[in-house]
Amino acid sequence: MKVTVFGCGYLGATHAACLAELGHEVLGVDVDEAKVAGLQNGDLPFYEPGLPDVLRRNLAAGRLQFTTDYDRAAAFADVHFLGVGTPQKKGEYAADLRHVYAVIDELAPRLCGDHLIIGKSTVPVGTSEELKRRARSASGDGAEINIAWNPEFLREGHAVDDTLRPDRIVLGIDSSDSAGSAEAQVRDLYSAILATGTPFLVTDLATAELVKVSANAFLATKISFINAISEVCEASGADVSMLADAIGFDDRIGRRFLNAGLGFGGGCLPKDIRAFMARAGELGADQALTFLREVDSINMRRRTAMVELTTEVCGNTLLGKNIAVLGAAFKPESDDVRDSPALNVAGQLQLKGAAVSVFDPKAIDNSRKVFPTLTYADSVHEACRQADAVLVLTEWTEFVHMDPAALRPLVRNMNVIDGRRCLDAGAWRRAGWSYSSLGGPVRDLRGYVASRV
Ligand code: UDX
């Protein structure tokens, strides 16, 4: 099939490349000329394992192209995906929908004949109905535009796998589409994925929009739940990682997303829970989501707690202290520093008088743009030179498997603070380090090592 994908950021570029991988002819469309030129040359503007291969293979096969030209896009296909960003509005909780509206306003007047626009962006419930109205009023007499919603659940760092092997496909269709034409087209598009038995849920438009934000709200709540429990563990001397293992064996709870520590960040969870609260308020259901305010504040409290723990470890002052910060990306296998807890902590420590040296395997360039005043190191060893405390704030494999003995001669004081509870506490202690962890103690009982999933 021939399809376009509007928006070539994280979501759109991945979706375009993966649709081509499924055998479709795909045109990615973006207003950013430099991004389009880069993608057309096989260069991804972000780090995502496995995606460069998919991109280049499909460019070479001629199945994938990129453009800034809306006329070309309108004529290229009659199925169009919408994958532009919906960031948080400045100074407000609500989502900024200007990019979504801009695509519809530009595209709709150029369409002739029957077209299906499938939304993938995370949007407030009710957006697709508004887009339908907008598209129909902007289009000419010869166009029939149908809107559907197919939320995207991909995780950064696993984007290709999550797109080609999703755990479910959700499709919201318009109630006026009684012939089921959107469903038939989407079934064709995803036939290779559906053939593997992937669950396919057809819903109304509002439900599909809500599925996405509800899933992210649930994940954020799960992380803040375990981080709230970790505050009680801190106060009582219990080990929250062992506790997570123990409650996680209950299938109703599950162990995943119960890793206590510095909490969540990134371009999705924080802004999605805020936009969800704002939308519920507009709908008169604001009381329903007040708990998400607490989820947000538990999460933000972890960053302050990390700064306090570091100050305590450094003898109650950060003045004149050298701090090595290992990790800047909001999570491993990503170079994304949007709302990164690690960078936030690094910035706070510097403002409190510490000399902070940051290392991350992939996110240094992006970090420099956001926080140009921090010092950036080229390696773990360089960051740790003369450090009074070594902080692990993103659980890159490289950090998890560091050799504590090799770092010993580099530092000024042997303090390691595990912001993600990902290090082998026993090994660090045996090598002579003073080991502290965010979220209370890590117990070394009979060699028990808590899991991280
Ligand atoms: C999230 C959703 O998982 C995905 O389905 C949606 O499409 C986009 O938003 P992503 O932002 O890529 O994906 O990251 P995710 O893996 O969910 O992690 C989010 C944050 O939570 C990271 O900062 C991570 O470090 C943190 N986290 C995750 C924890 O603190 N503890 C955990 O147990 C899991």
Strand elements, count? 14
Instruction: Spell out which ligands are present.
Output: uridine-5'-diphosphate-xylopyranose
The helix content, as a percent range, equals 40-55%
Distance between the termini: 38 Å
The tally of structural domains comes to 2
* Overall CATH architecture of the largest domain: 3-Layer(aba) Sandwich
Predict the CATH topology of the largest domain.
Rossmann fold
CATH level-four homologous superfamily name of the largest domain: NAD(P)-binding Rossmann-like Domain
Mean pLDDT: 96
Low-confidence stretches: none
Descriptive report:
The chain has 453 residues and is of the alpha/beta class. The protein has two domains: 2-198, 3-Layer(aba) Sandwich (Rossmann fold), CATH 3.40.50; 216-437, NAD(P)-binding Rossmann-like Domain (Rossmann fold), CATH 3.40.50.720. It has 19 helices and 14 strands. An eight-stranded mixed sheet has the order 3-2-1-4-5-6-7-8, sandwiched between helices. Helix 1 crosses helix 3 and helix 13 (290-313) packs across helix 14. The model has no long low-confidence stretch (mean pLDDT 96). The structure holds uridine-5'-diphosphate-xylopyranose. Uridine-5'-diphosphate-xylopyranose binds at residues 152-156, 216, 219, 223, 257-259, 261, 263-266, 268-269, 330-331.
Brief digest:
With 453 residues, this protein is α/β, with parallel strands linked by helices. It contains 19 helices and 14 strands.
Give the helix/strand layout:
Elements: E1 2-6, H1 10-21, E2 25-29, H2 33-40, H3 51-60, E3 64-67, H4 70-76, E4 79-82, H5 98-107, E5 113-119, H6 127-138, E6 143-149, H7 159-164, E7 169-173, H8 181-189, H9 191-194, E8 200-204, H10 205-236, H11 240-248, H12 269-282, H13 290-313, E9 322-326, H14 341-351, E10 355-359, H15 364-370, E11 375-376, H16 380-384, E12 389-392, H17 397-400, H18 404-407, E13 415-418, H19 425-430, E14 434-437
Parallel strand pairs: 1-2, 1-4, 2-3, 4-5, 5-6, 7-8, 9-10, 9-12, 10-11, 12-13, 13-14
Antiparallel strand pairs: 6-7
The structure holds uridine-5'-diphosphate-xylopyranose.
